[in-house]
Design goal:
Elements lengths: L4 H14 L8 E5 L4 H13 L4 E5 L2 H4 L10 H9 L2 E5 L7 H11 L5 E4 L5 H4 L6 H17 L2 E7 L5 E7 L8 E3 L8 E3 L4 E4 L7 E6 L2 E2 L2 E2 L6 E6 L2 E6 L4 H16 L8 E7 L11 H4 L5 E7 L13 E7 L2 E4 L2 E5 L2 E2 L3 H4 L18 E4 L4 E3 L5 E8 L2 E6 L3 H13 L7 E2 H8 L3 H13 L3 E3 L1
Parallel strand pairs: 1-2, 1-3, 3-4, 4-8
Antiparallel strand pairs: 5-6, 5-18, 6-10, 7-9, 9-15, 10-13, 11-12, 13-14, 15-16, 16-17, 18-19, 19-20, 21-25, 21-26, 22-23, 23-24
Helix pairs in contact: 1-2, 11-12, 11-13, 12-13
Amino acid sequence: MSGDPDSHAGARQLVRRCLGLEPGQQFVILADETTVEAAMAIAAAAESLLVPHTTILVPAAVQRRIPLQSDLSLLAQGAVREARAILVCVNGAPDCQPFREWFLETNWTARTRIGHMPGANLDALKLAEVDCDRLVSDCHDLEVALARGQTLELITRTPAGVTHRLEADIGSWQRLPVASDGIITDGAWGNVPSGETYIAPLEGTATGSVVVDGSIPGLVIGPGQEIVLHFQYGRLSRMEPEDGPVARHLAETQIRHAKAVGDLDWGNLAEIGVGLNPAVEGLTGNMLLDEKAAGTAHVALGSSFFLGGTVQASIHCDLVTRGTGLLVDGRTVVEGGRLAYSEGDWHEHYKNVPVASSSWFSARQVARSGIQAVAAPDGRLQRLLRSQPGRVSACFVGEQKTALLARDLYDWLPPTGEWVAIDRLASRAGMSAGVARRVLHIMADYDLVMAR
């Protein structure tokens, strides 16, 4: 095990908290020649926690042949089938991306937890040694804003103070975000360690420009080397300067590969995300770390399919920018690179519903919409968010008191969608018709109920 106490503590946190493994539960680590040191540190942590583990070496050359020309050995396949958690701890090169996607597609099950750790090293393990409760809260706060919002605006600036704005449609419940908090539960997959929230904008909607002044895969951007990416109709239209060191590095390590395989979608704006992990102390060119750094945001080119989008490309290239601003439906959620989330903007109190403009005060009947909601352990109603298989989370319906009242109303609504008189529903739930209509107004904002 590495002598670095931070890496040691982070590896234990990854096994115990991120993957939630208990003594006796089977654990499989997939590694290659670029990630052996980190994989061995994680294996040692599992050993110290009495978690039985199997480490499988899949060299990069073998990854490039799977699944078309080769497969994992029968022994490796058996270990994967029996695992409660799997950590895919391999290189992040674009020509090995098909292997990573294939492994996820073929091995995700309802009982398995899959952690994704491309380009892992000992520094990456330190990201797990963080205040998990605070990180989870921050990730999910931003998730609520991105889930409810219709439009997103990313604001960046050049060193000379020139402002660039990138706008995109995020769909308001149509395209759900992912709060990548690094906590992997049964039937889920995600990056570990983590600390970001991201969304795949609706295809073809992104327009504007963004300053990339942080890092790109394999390169930290130095002073005066920043680039500006311009987008039209959701695709990269040009970058400036086109002949600088950053543009050349992108061409050599990402774009050339995409063009060589005939990929026409490499320029798709696949992702907009915000880093929230304060344990990332500086940018390194390793996207596993850099895109999680608090104070940064990132955009990505290429594939959005595993983020909830529809584009399957040969690359997924993250590009990090510093000190950004982010607006959702005109409301500030990130300012100067830091979370500026206002609880009142996104978790409303039923008492603040405007009676004069709410259609719920003229409605007579209500029914469930078909969108799933569940009660949290404390009794508050949560709307389930499902961006894709393996990524499930939920958000509370309004602030605390509102979410409790919403649960009371929701429980009395027939799950089969029959219409119920609102006054009768209020009586059954033990509240006044006026309070019920205010709460239903907020429930409708979460797409949980319909009126007539």
